[in-house]
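Translate sequence into structure tokens.
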Amino acid sequence: MSNRKLQTFDEYRYGPRSVLQPGDRFRVGGGPVYVTDDGVEHVVAERGTFKFRRYCVQGANKWLEAYPADGGCVAILWVGKARRSPTVPNLRRKPYKIRKITQQKRPRRKKLACPA
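Result follows.
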């Protein structure tokens, strides 16, 4: 087995115009699932708001390192292709979907009164 060099990046591009940089807040969706022998899927993904730390690539493996926004240890968030885990037989690595949290508030829509 060849040693693949770990590459780290200070930004992660998750869309054509969307980039995460250190300190940016984001939410995640998706993530890994554990499939029992009966075929029942159990979600084992991280949830909540995170602060981006860095993006890592090692061969085909790609992940984000981020801190939970409310404090705590570093969370490893898989963003590579979906595949089976090499160490845990029934674990399916599914990529997280990233949604950046912006400070802009959307204007409220006014309700229209129905003429009677």
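Note: Residues 28 and 98 are 5 Å apart (CA to CA).
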